[in-house]
Structures
1.
Amino acid sequence: MNETERKKDLSDIITTGPPVAGWAAPSKANIIDPIYKPGDIYSYERCTHCGYCRHVCKVYNTSWSETDYAGGRNRIIKALDRKDIKFDNEEIIPSVFRCMLCGNCATVCPVGVDTLAVFQHLRKVVVKKGAVPAKLVIIKNSLKENNNPFLETHADRFNWCDSCDEAEEALRRGRSTFVSDESLKSEDIKAPKGPATKVGYFVGCTSSYRNKELSTATSQVMKKLGVEFMVFPEERCCGSVLFRTGLEDDALELVKQNYEMVRKSGVEDVIFSCSGCFSTFSLEYSKYANNDLGFNVFHLTQYALKVVKEKNLKIRYTLRSKDDPLLITYHDPCHLGRYCGVYEEPRELIRRIEGVKLHEMKHNRSMAWCCGAGGGVKALYGDIAVEVGRDRLTETRACMVRIREDRLKEAMETTAEVLVSSCVFCKNNLFQVANEDHSPIKVMDISQLLNDCEFY
C-alpha cells in the first residue's frame, strides 16, 4: 500500500496507540474550526488519546469500534483537517451520528476537551458538506412543514388537552392571551380575556403527540400544586433535534418563533416536563437572547419542589404506605443532569414523598449512564434496536438495545421496583427494553409518580 492509499484508509488513522499518533497529528490550518475557550484547553486538538473516555462511552462498549468513542472521533477530525481523509468517506458518517452526545466523555476528560461542543460542531460542518442521513432529511422537512419531527399535522398538536379538564382550561387561558378582542367572539374561544397567567407549560413534541399521558400527568400535578398555568397555543418544536444533529441554522427560526411567543404571553415562569426542551431553552435559547431570556425556566421537578417548599406542603404516595414503601431508583437524564446540572432537585422531591423509598444506582448524577436515546441516535438508528442481549452489533449498526440493557441491569441490581426518570426519551427507551425483556421493573416518568401523590 502506497502512502496515498494509506492516507485514505480510515482504519489506519483511527488506531489505539500513543498520544497524537501517526497520521492524526494536529494541523495549523484547520478546515474545521476548533472550539476555543480561555486557556485553549477545550479544543479537540488538546486530545491526548489517553483512552479515559473509551471506558465510559456506551456506544463504544457496544460496538468496540475505535470510531465510536471521543478519542477516535477526534482523530477523524484531525485527519479531516490534514486532508488525510475526505468528508465523503463512507465510514465517517456513522461515527459522526452514532454519538449520543451524552457528555460522559467530557466529564472524565483529564485535559478538559469540550467534546459536546466539538462533536455538535463536527456534525454542523459535515451536514453543510452535504452528508446528511436520509432519516434526518425527513425529520428536517417535517419540522419545516409541520413544526414537529413526527410528520404529524400541527393542528393536532393540542389534541392531548382533551384528555383532562386541567389541560383544556390551560389551553383556553393560552388562547385568550394571544387572541384579539374580536376573536374572543368566535366559538372556539371559551375563556374570557383576563389578566395574564404568570406560568406557562411548554409541552414539547413527544409529550404532545406520542406520550400524551405525560403532558396530562404534568397538568394534573400543576393543579394539585395549586398553580394556574397556560399552554402556549402557538408552540412549535423547540428545535433540540436540529441543534443536536448539525442543523443549527434550521433550528434558529423555531427558536425565534417560540421565544417571541413566550415573551408575548407575558409569563414569568416556563415549566418543562421534557428535559430536552428544558436544556434547549436553558442553553441555546439563552444564547440567542444574550443570556437574558426575560423569563425563568424550570424543569417540572425544580418547580414542584419550589412550590412544595414555599407552601410547606407534604407529599404522600397514595398507592403504598410508609410501612410498605414503593422502592424506586432514579435515572439522571443527560439533558437535565450533565447538560444543566440538575441532580438534586428530583432526588429531594422524591425523598419528600411518604410511601416511596429511593435507592441509588452505582452510576448516578454526573457519572450516570445514558439511556441510549440521545443525540438523535434513536431517531436515526432506531430500526436496529432489536432484542436485548444479542451479540455485539457491527460498526455500521449503531446499537441502542445493549446500551439500554446495561442501564436496566444496573437498575435491577438496586432491588428497585420502579425506574423513574425525568425525560420522556429516557422513559420511552427504557420502557421499550423492560417490555421486550419482560423485566419485573416498571419504568415511569416522574410526572406520573407525582400524579399518584397527594399534596397537602
2.
Amino acid sequence: MTLGLASMTEASWTKRALADLEEILVDHAHCEKKAASTALSLVFKYMEHSHFLPVLSALAREELRHFEQVLQHLAARDIPFRRQKPSPYAGRLMEACRKDEPDRLLDVLIVCSLIEARSLERMGILRDAVDDPELSRFYGNLLASEARHRAAYLDLARSVFPSEVVAHRHGELARHEARVIAEAPPWPRMHC
C-alpha cells in the first residue's frame, strides 16, 4: 500500500482532471470546506477525548486556509465558486463505518486518513501534470499539509486503539476505498 492506499490513481483520472481544471478547482474548494467541517464535527462528537481537540482544531483552521487559497485561485482565473454535484466518494466510504462506538470512532478516523491520503496522491499528480506554474506550485505546497493531516488522523486512532487493531481495520477500509475509487463515476472531481 502506498500512502496507506490499496490502489493508485489511474492515468484516466489525470486526463479528466486536466481536461476540466475549472471543475477540479471548484471541487477542490468544496473538499477543503468539507474537510474543515469534518474536523470540527469530530471536536463536537468526541470532546471527551480532550487530546483530540487541539489537533482537530488546528487541522480545521488549516483546511479553512486551504479553502481560502483555492478561492483565490478561482478568483484569479475568473471561475465562480458554485454548487456542484458532490462526488459519491466520501459518502460511500462512510457507509463502511460501523455504527456502534467505539468502533465507529476508529472507522471514521481511518476514513479521514484515507481521504487525506487520496487527496495527497492526487495533488501530487496535479503538481506534476498542470501546465500552469502557479497552480503547480500551489499543489506542491499543499503536499506537506495533506501528509500531516493523514498522519494526524492515524495518530489519533492509535492514541485510543491498539496499533494492531488500527492496522487491521486500516487494511480493510483501504481495500474498500480502492473499490470505491474504481467504481466512481468518471467526473472531473478530486475523488472520482
3.
Amino acid sequence: MNIKRFYTGGFMTNSYLLWDENNEAYLFDCEGERIDKIIDFIDEKNLELKYIILTHGHSDHICGLNAVKEVYPEAKVFIGDEDAEFLVDPSKSHSNYIFGINFIYKGSFKRIKDGDVIGKFLVIDTPGHTRGSKCFFDKESKILISGDTMFRRSFGRYDFPESSGEQLFNSLRRLCKLPSETVVYSGHTESTTIGEERIFLTSLGII
C-alpha cells in the first residue's frame, strides 16, 4: 500500500491518499483549503479514487468533500453512523464558527459502524473526540488511520459537547491492542507506531 500525506489548512489537518497495486485509491479526510493539491496528485498518478473515508465529522476534516466529489462523482463517501448529521448541520461540524461558512454536503454517503470493511480497511469504533469517530486498520500493511483519536505523543480533544474523555481513553486502550509495529497516521501530527504510543499512554496511567 502506498501512502501520501497532504498537510493542509489553518488547522494543519492531515489528509491521506493511499493506493494499491491496481491504482485504486482511498482518501481519508478532506479539509477544505488547498484541496487542489490532492486532485492534482490523483490525476498525475492516474489513480482511481474509489473511497472517501471520513474519520469523524468536524469541519477541518470534511469541508473539501463537495469539491472532491465534483471531480470524482463515482467515489463513495463513508462516515461513522453517529457523526452522519455533521455532514448536513454546520452547527454540529462547527464549520459555521470555525470557518465562517455553513458547510452542507450535497451528495450521498454510507454510514459505517464497528467491524465494517472498506476495501482493505477494517473499521474500528473509537468514540471520544466525537461519538462517531472511527479508525481504520489495514492488517496486511500494518497501517492505522487514527483521525483525531490518537496522535504522536498525544490524543484528541474531549472538551467539545459531543466529546467524552472516558470514551476516548477506552478507545485508546483498544487501539493499543493492535500490533506494536502498526504505523499510526493521525489527523494532525507526524506518524508514530502503536508500540511507541502504548509506552507513552502507560506513562500517563491511561493504560
